Give the backbone structure.
Amino acid sequence: MVAHATMLTIAYLGPEHTNTHLAAQRRFGTRSRYAHEPTVDDVFSAVERRRADYGVVPVENSLEGAVTHTLDRFIDFKDSPVRIAGEIEFPIRHYLVRPPSATLSSIQAVYSHPQALAQCRRWLRAHLAHKIVLLETNSTAEAVDAVLSHGRLHPTSPLKHVAAIGREEAARGRHLAAVPIADDRENKTRFLILSLRQPRRGRRHKTSLLFALKDRPGALSDALTPFKRERINLTKIESRPSKKKAWEYDFFIDFAGHESEPQVKRALRALQQSTLYLRVLGSYPTAKA
Amino acid sequence: MVAHATMLTIAYLGPEHTNTHLAAQRRFGTRSRYAHEPTVDDVFSAVERRRADYGVVPVENSLEGAVTHTLDRFIDFKDSPVRIAGEIEFPIRHYLVRPPSATLSSIQAVYSHPQALAQCRRWLRAHLAHKIVLLETNSTAEAVDAVLSHGRLHPTSPLKHVAAIGREEAARGRHLAAVPIADDRENKTRFLILSLRQPRRGRRHKTSLLFALKDRPGALSDALTPFKRERINLTKIESRPSKKKAWEYDFFIDFAGHESEPQVKRALRALQQSTLYLRVLGSYPTAKA
């Protein structure tokens, strides 16, 4: 939680009551104003146009990988003044939400967000091995709503018994049963905090870069060598299509350290030799694990 | 097209008449038997259980990036005997398919596969800038079917005028208008050919690797150095969650060359020093551009 004299406005990828909303609330507390936006692009725009002090968007899940819409927004708008001012790690706990009348073996269809369905693929295969239909919704909150309105909206549907994958809170006080979907794998989502402001210094920092390589053999190896030389620990590399030419890529790199540190400055100067384009997306305090 | 004495069975990610089907037909011709499978996992299984001689799955799109289901199948089943025996590049041409009665400005909703909707995001924003609802389907073929059945299945829906993004062929002979969605960006999908067989030698080859790095600073730089030293051109690097521990990654690398060439053998031996796990997924002829 961040203490400020004036009330902060936090734009986040909506709708309300999703994991992004909860992650934002955990960081910015109860004394901020929250504005949900329909798309990742709208969250960036809210920060760019100063309608919000901070934006919160998901960037990566520990099972499903990168949230490509968020990465691509940095590629598509290379001149945007938005910087990464922080990150939030948030544990994801999925529940199977169903009317008490629907037993596990009677369920014919499961509503949820595509990411949640993907994250629970293993559990669904083990526990609902009979043929079920997966129905995609825009959020896990919408999925739980869909369970309640299913019979009314689709009276002639052959699918009578439906469930949702969602958060436990969404089921409360609505005559729905929620059982946790147990999976031994660590399921966390990492969110970026976007801002035009410089973040305060923390104890440990992380820096995020976006760059395009010159087209020559060994370019990626040359790009990474300065980090090894300066003993800087890369925590992440992600390639994304440049969208200019097929099979050309831009790269996102995260490493431990702050852009103001001398060894980081030296590494960035050396990196510039192998890149066509290089942008520091931000140096910010590392999320506590 | 491949000539064989006996008829080949080709499993592909269905349903029928999708780009994967067309890409498979272009490579394996009219004298093969085609079997559509509902998921990427089922295509791999068909090859593993020898129900098919070859499998065809999408692996990457030039605008939207990696098809993560396909990459993750290699990670989730590291002991699978399936190898990459080839690749197919296929241009993607999207059409807006609508009943002749629906004008551009009257369209309220657009059905399509999430990848197609993502690839056409820019066009949709420019040409259907009025608020439209995006409705996801399992394939572009299903999206066109949905336009025809929309009024019958959802008689009370407030969305009267709907369209689909799909292939031109799907609209033919069905009283639907199809106009190409013009986008200046190169839109191609790359498909992998899966097999238990060794591919024939071609003129130019590509090799695909999957590996996990030892946890030490400079590990990724050390892993790439041997390729630079041997003047081997990396064409692609992709990181994916290991799914064992949050924020640990496995890497996919493609490079020019065949695993039987001496410089490739030397690079692979050196790479082994920085990896916990290393698997050659296949050496195969490069797709003609």
